[in-house]
Specification:
- The protein contains five helices and five strands.
- The longest helix has 13 residues, at about 15-30.
- Helix content is about 45%, strand content about 20%.
- The chain has helices at about 15-30, 40-50, 65-75, 90-100, 115-120; strands spanning about 10-15, 35, 55-60, 85, 105-110.
- With about 120 residues, it is α/β, with parallel strands linked by helices.
- The relative contact order is 0.18.
- Helix 2 (about 40-50) packs parallel to helix 3 (about 65-75).
- A five-stranded parallel β-sheet has the order 2-1-3-4-5, with helices on both faces.
Length: about 120
């Protein structure tokens, strides 16, 4: 029952240090290997040069290279890594926009770590 998290490498892209720290700690405690980026440029670089089993991607980032642009760039390069978008933007239009851009799942903030873990396992 469950998946073997120790083999899964997750990229967490989140500019809020508190959320990023809690998320990374929670994922590591669950057995995932976690890399972190706190801005769009670093996230794009890591997504382009490293291999991940999943990406947890904040929708709004501070450097003008937001989550939607990162997602579109990854998909444009043929990168099919599953992407779960985290966002304070909770409208249906925003969720649909990200899904059409290629995200695999969308979770609004605030969120429960247990739900995020379940979505990653799925």
């Amino acid at each position: 029952m469950g998946c073997d998290n120790a083999r899964m490498r997750i990229l967490v892209v989140e500019d809020d240090a508190g959320i990023a720290g809690g998320l990374a700690a929670s994922l590591r405690q669950a057995g995932y290997a976690v890399d972190e980026a706190d801005n769009g440029r670093d996230a794009h670089f890591l997504g382009d040069t490293e291999t991940f089993d999943a990406v947890v991607l904040d929708r709004m980032l501070p450097d003008g290279f937001d989550g939607l642009k990162i997602l579109q760039a990854l998909r444009g390069m043929g990168n099919t890594t599953p992407v779960l978008v985290l966002s304070a933007l909770s409208t249906t239009d925003e969720r649909v926009r990200c899904l059409k851009a290629g995200c695999d799942d969308y979770l609004t903030k605030p969120f429960a770590f247990s739900e995020l873990h379940a979505r990653l396992e799925a």
